Amino acid sequence: MGCFVAIVNEGRAPVDERLLQRMMDVPPYRGPAECHVWTDSPVGLGYSALRIEHQDDESIQPFSLDKKLWAVMDGRLDDRATLVRSLERHVNRDLGSASDVELALAAYESWGTGCARQLIGDFAFCIWDTERRLLFCARDHFGVKPLYYARVGTSFVVSNVLRSLRRHPAVSERLNDNAIGDFLLFGLCMEPSQTSFADVARLPPAHTLTCSSSNAEPHVERYWTLRPGPETRHGEPRDYVQQFTSAFETAVSDRLRGGHVGILMSGGLDSSSVAATAAGVLGSSAARTSLRAFTAVYDTVAEDEERRYSSLVADALGIGIEHLAVDAYQMFDRWNTGLLPPEPSSEPMTATTADLLERAIDAVEREDAVAVGVGDEQRARGD
Predict the structure, then answer these.
(1) From CA 28, how far away is CA 336, in angstroms rounded?
(2) In this predicted structure, what is the pLDDT of residue 382?
(3) What tens digit of pLDDT does each residue of 275-296 get?
(4) How close are the terminal C-alpha atoms of the chain, in Å?
(5) Looking at the DSSP assignment, which residues form a beta bridge with residue 261?
(6) Among candidate residues 197, 222, 247, the one where a domain is terminated
(7) CA proximity to 98, closest of 44, 59, 62, 147
(8) Given 171, 194, 222, which residue is the final one in a domain?
(9) Does this model's pTM top 0.70?
């Protein structure tokens, strides 16, 4: 999980490596000292990992195997076994232990710009095709991972972090009047391809984007539309429960990639079900050592039983839990100290979420964690 940037200049104007580094100098990523950049005259890719992410040599990005295709990616690919079997019929190498970014690259090798239709997960990525002089970008089906882009002068810029993209010197501060009007009326921008900034567009969910160094004008295309499947009919009510349970376990297990896992758990039905399923997938002994819950609670200013119920769930599952009392927080707390969202927001309790996720990150770092689980993305993306 990290921040990435891609820049394509028209013609032969080279990309400045220092610009890539400056653009990735945004918290909570590692910044220019530890980011990785690759340039090839008019194109450049950069990647900066989260400070909690441990990278081995095989996962360092920008990633390439043959110096012909280069990729940067934020996210996770699911149903890996099926994907690997399909890919190994097309590429002549073993992908059983491949990283997600390598699988995305192999998917492009196999299916070209139609590869996103073959992928499942939460992802945003960019691939530079050296031979075709083509930048290909994709965003997951439901838009869990963000992807932004800007056409400024003779340059085309892409990033998964809005603050990062806005650090490009040619991206202006001008606001998008339509998006601001939507926010004032509805609380959010109603057009999925726009942001609050006039120069910056958002790639909608389930879309791909391509552009070339000969013509940096982007081409956006939808690759998937949600359509109802056939109606499911079972003879026994318990069969519906079993079918849902199986799908739920698959979704949770896809998100458990090893290491210590933090989960935001209120004690209510939804988060407690995720925690219980995660504990079941890990097994009781593994859950006790690698799974930990985090809960924001009110002790004085409101009648709040989340401390009680979340503790009951944690005790029943045999996992640790930490509570953050948020009675003293004020609305819009610390917005003037770096917590101001990058786009207009009507969420007044940003500080409570940030501190809760910071506590989860600190806890798993103490355990030498390699991953943070459910609930990490709001803290991590910085978008």
Answers:
(1) 17
(2) 42
(3) 999 999 999 888 888 899 999 9
(4) 13
(5) 291
(6) 222
(7) 59
(8) 222
(9) yes
